[in-house]
Queue: 2 jobs
Job 1
Amino acid sequence: METAALATFGEAFQGEIVPPGSANYETARSVWNAMIDRRPALIARCAGVEDVLSAIRFARDQDLVVAVRSGGHSVGGFSTCDDGIVIDLSLLQGVRVDPEARIARVAGGTLLRDLDAAAQAFGLACPVGVVGHTGVAGLTLGGGLGRLQRHWGYSIDNMLAVELVTADGEQLRVSEEENADLFWGMRGAGPNFGIVTAFEFRLHELGQTVTQGVLLFPAERAHRLAARVREWAPSASDEVMTSFGFGLAVDEPPSPPELAGRPVVYMSATHSGAPDEADEALRPLRDLGPLVDTIEPRRYLDVQTMADEEMAWGKRFYMKGGFLAELSNGYLDAGLDSVAAAPSPGCSITLWLQGGAIARVDPDAMAFTGREAPFWLGVEAEWDDRALDDAHVEWGRSTMSALQPFTAAGHYVNDMVESGEDVVRSIYGDDKYERLVNLKRTYDPDNVFRLNQNIEPG
Ligand SMILES: Cc1cc2nc3c(=O)[nH]c(=O)nc-3n(C[C@H](O)[C@H](O)[C@H](O)COP(=O)(O)OP(=O)(O)OC[C@H]3O[C@@H](n4cnc5c(N)ncnc54)[C@H](O)[C@@H]3O)c2cc1C
């Protein structure tokens, strides 16, 4: 970096420039996953769109690798880099709700919890993920799965428009009406095409209360439970979201102490319809006879932040994911074997029920691939001690290999930590991949935005 150029850049910059050695460099360079330890040459914490424009210009002039960061939750560490520049949007936060139009305008660096809180102030909600400190930007531009997904779709299904700064410093509004070709790609492969400084989302009416909780069962019952879930799921109300997971029971309430360390099946359920209809809608799951049942009416905002502490910054994390073709006995056997061999209770295999509103969107309507599958599949490992890195990463890899035969087409881009053209093709499929390459050639031919699941312009 040329010193004079840096000084000129710094003079006009309204936000904060954080070089190595400055007081808050260590904090500013850290990202959610403690496995990722990179040292950028510069962190540019933008205060507005002008800062984003000048950071891109500076990076290109100085030939710096560009990482773009909002919530910093990329599990693979795509929002930071060694020696390049991090264009950090975390100061660019804010939500404005138009309650009449039921639209939220959301600044690029906003966190989920702030979108949730702003929408709920008007009895509204936008489908987003399940941990409040995740960034809206990375989550949405990849897809955005969560508790309201069957009721109202993924986050991308509710994304009406984005304001984008491109590699050439153009400012584009991207929606069904404007730059529609790019809007197709932004929904699933968004980080490839520029920096989103603002989003517009459609909101839905949701009272303060949902009915939510967890059901716990011994693993020996997995096959019988799965048979019941297979029967129930096709007719389940869109207002019910459920997960079906395997893990090792921990020795803390509400899990019974005698189960500690043993494989268990857990199901979570959320009913987001009228509270007086929750009992009937959730009855088929509660009647399965769980050892533990924590389902009860809860404040939606509490539910949306209830995992924040458990998933706090600073954990070591590895994951793999896919979409499950069907809840088959083969899948159950492979999953149970893997979880029994897990190195710690931080390892889990989870399915999230799809269908409902997700399945009513044309699979070709956007770059995202995988919505036709009945379940999203996540293999996750979380631990604290770096000496256990290899054991957990190896468990994640071998578990996903064992489950691969049971998966359907597509991968959720936000789950993919490894990269390369094969990985990217497996996310989108060959046809969508080719279409994305064409978009990349138009909007980022020099591949300035390459720290992501990268579509190479070729
Ligand atoms: C604790 C935790 C919980 C999660 N829960 C869910 C969940 O419930 N549902 C779900 O779908 N996913 C979930 N995820 C995955 C999550 O969607 C991704 O990690 C996502 O990338 C996080 O977005 P971020 O803004 O925090 O990430 P960042 O690390 O800041 O960015 C992720 C990617 O997006 C790009 N990017 C960031 N900001 C912008 C921008 N403004 N414009 C353009 N590109 C940008 C970055 O360059 C990077 O490639 C979770 C992840 C974690 C760690």
Note: The first helix runs from residue 3 to 12.
Job 2
Amino acid sequence: MKRLLSLCVTAALGAAHGMTGAATMDLDAVTFQTVVNGGVGGALAVRHAGDGSNRLFVVRQGGTINVISAAGTLLPTAFLNIGSGGTAPPLGFTTGGERGLLGLAFHPQYATNGRFYINYTDGSGNTVVAEYTVSGGNPDQADASSGRVILRVYQPNSNHNGGDIHFGPDGYLYIGMGDGGSGNDPCNAGQALVPGDMSGCTPGGSFTGTPPSGVPQGNASSRALLGKMLRIDVDSTNTPVGADLCGADTNLRTYGIPAGNPFAGDAGSNASACDEIYHYGLRNPWRFSFDRVNHDLIIGDVGQNAWEEMDLVPGSAAGLNFGWKVCEGFHVRGSTSNLCTLAGRTDPILEYDHDVGVSITGGYRYRGPYTSISGALFYADAYYDKLFAATESGGTWTLAKTWSSNPAIATLTGFGEGEDGHLYFTAMGDGKIYRIVAPVAPGNAVFEDGFEGP
Ligand SMILES: [Ca+2]
Ligand SMILES: [Ca+2]
């Protein structure tokens, strides 16, 4: 059946080539095909290596990354395990609640350099981005002892760790940082660009313990990186003159600042503002993505008590302020009626209130082979067990369809694309991976061999 499926899709794709956009949208025909039928509990992201292997890599909160072969088989041995029964990462590991292994990004030149990056909670509860390499002899096995800390950010509370990481189309690593937790951003992290602007909170984090020799301790100013989207260069340690490196270890340079970071260097209002910051005013950008066609950055920002929001950065725009904690969605924080008036903010493209859901899982714009849904933006609410699709017309986004009451979308915590553009999602609760399936062209039959549709 699977072989027949791929033949049908391939044949029909040729005929449908070029048909895109809302006019041809056929969301009612979407179904969810089971790709992995259990065994990957705690999954929160799906990634591909960009190496032509067509494998999928499943990121699991408990500390493992599992490989799904191109033939669709879940391999029995994990690619990497930094959790229970595995090899602890350089600064230790904590999981549970909003902590754990939270992100994975393969280097754009992974096929030749074998380098990939993970975001995890260390043994003291702080955020760590570390570099690993694949093993020399087995492409389905990472070198568990290769971990090297790139960035460590002090976390004052257990929640709002963000955790997603992606390489942008510019080749730089983007890191989504939550506001450090508690509630209502007590240190004003979202709006603080300078470590000293933390509204009376001690800007410096007191990292506990002493790391082994050669492992970065972290920087006391790293707390100012909370509530931001960071952009760093993992291929260089170059920094601008007068750089304000809020996350870099004093004696151990592990990354560079890309030219064009909006607060790089000391000129004008950039003085003392952290050079790693690319966008700010975020509360908890749990999951984000890059549109593989137009390179827009799409961020799902989890709200406080009133609004969940979807933010969009067009093309290569830099330095956007998404408003938190002054704004929540389009509104004044906590208000269901008063619109936000913060000067210079960038409003979201979408919001929904807490009757609809309470924790957004940021999604992807569909760019896969099923052209009847090309350009639809899929996102979810992990607590209310809903999947949404929005469509865009003339720059305005509109919710077009909501799926609910379906076991496939219970605790939907992450999405991911395959190398071929297929869109997948993970349900933390049932340990399964699903593929979003739709007619190749509107009116065509749906070719799928798995889950019964909604
Ligand atoms: Ca600066
Ligand atoms: Ca916002």
Note: The pocket of calcium ion (ligand 1) is lined by residues 244, 263-266, 270, 273, 275 (CB under 6 Å).
